[in-house]
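Dear colleague,

Thank you for sharing your sequence with our group. We've completed the structure prediction you requested, and as agreed, I am returning the results in plain text so they can be pasted directly into your records. Please verify that the sequence below matches your submission; if there's any discrepancy, let me know and we will rerun it promptly.
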Amino acid sequence: MNLININNLVELFFKQFENQKDKKKVLLSSLKDKNINFTWEKTYQAINILSEEIKKNVTKGDRCLLVSENRPEWFISDLSIMLSGSITVPAYTTYAERDYEYIINDCSPSVVFVSNDEQFKKLKNIVKNKKFIKKIFSFEKLSDIEEYNYINLNDLFSKSTDENNNSKIKITRKDPACIIYTSGTQGNPKGVILSHGGILNNCEGAIEILKPLIKKDQTRFLTWLPLSHSYEHTVQFVQITVAARVFYAESIEKLIKNMNDCRPEIMTAVPRFYQNLYQKINASFNKATGVKKVLIQKMLNLGLKKIKKEPLNFIEKIQDRILEKIVRKKIKAQFGGSLKTFVSGGGALDKEVGFFLNAIGLPTLQGYGLTETSPVVSCNPINDIRVETVGPPFKGNEVKIAEDGEILVKGENVMLGYWNNKEETDKVLKNGWLHTGDIGVFENNYLKITDRKKDILITPGGDNISPLKIENELINSEIIDQAIVYGDNKPYLVALLVLNDEKKSSTEEEINQEIDKVNEKLSKIENIKKFFTINEKFSIENGMLTPTLKLKRFKIVQKYKNSFEKLY
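Please find the predicted structure tokens below.
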């Protein structure tokens, strides 16, 4: 499908619907509730019905808040909101009440969508007093709802309609599609306004990357990252572009089970997922003995040679083919057996993890982007993966490196601005160029991220240190689960460590031995001199991780400031 002539995301769906020969083919499936399945036809009808109901409560440009776990109704609501002329405002289900209140006060939604009672309880006290909220829609029946103007989607979808809104769409590529609030690692989240054209532009780039993997039959995607994150929000339109079969995972805890349930060919995830995967697989490899151990090591060595573009001799090529069948095939079988690629985004993928996964036969394409770029700027192609880079820029993106090394981006994919925040918009958008805050270089047209401007630690001697690089080395240890490095303008670096559950009883001497191993891989100024440990893991629930599992560095440092300072 040629996306250049598509005006908006709703039109994309309608055109793909028209292209389907079998409209009763399943499009959307919930793995949590096997009874929830939407065919192309049912999805089409539901979008038409729901959009008409939304129109009764909005005018063009109104905002609609969407709070739900990943499920088929999420996609239907998103498209229906857009078709009504409104703007989708997704919000994480993990937000605290104060976060919802901030977003609701900031964007003043006319309509609120919630999945169930659990989510509605978080919003109940807030929406009660907001006169601008005209209606509440829910995916499941809500209790204690009498005082609200409310409708359940199941009741709505039971109605039949001959309504066809295809000809009524008056949305351009420059119109806002959604307002996605950043996860707020440094304070209150900012509402990033993304256009229909920006997301379509991302879809064009993604299709170029995935083209070798797309087959004539329905390609299967498993989605588990929150749809309220710009990464997965855009992925759902990539799925429509290739007419994929979409499965919604139950939870992160059941991810491996779900992969075996639906046998996905393509799956998107964040670096922390791959880090955990690496640790688990590597731990099982380390337990191997005898012939099994020899085969695993040989498979790894040959896989690393291939991914590093080192030629294999005749004997090695034969060995690699044999190992593909007797070792790599068994590894792939643990993930459903059909996986063609992982796509990593939302943060930097540790190079050791990237090399490892690609070497064992799990192709992992690292990309780069920001919420402000809809979100992808660049990504590695499947036929030329360069692990230490984030690939060449997507078609239609203009990327350049400023004099101070900062990555600048220009193109249709760049946000329209921050909602209600011209001051912050003007800080990052200058002459059409988005100042990303990331530091990088180009290597043969492949972009390589070297640092994050705001996260850099500066030594008293003026040296710049990337804490992320050191933290990745620390959590690759068998005993360290999480780590944060501290020491801006300090005489040396220190670290806060969270140990693996199985290694909680590790002595100070054992921890020091692990840190010594890490220090050997680092320059002298990057060495960790002292540390302290805590028992509580950083999590989304305690506010120390973003919904995509990135450290909320500022919050963690503030909480443990005294403990850090005692090490000096």
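Summary note from our side: The longest strand covers residues 433-443.

Kind regards,
the structure core
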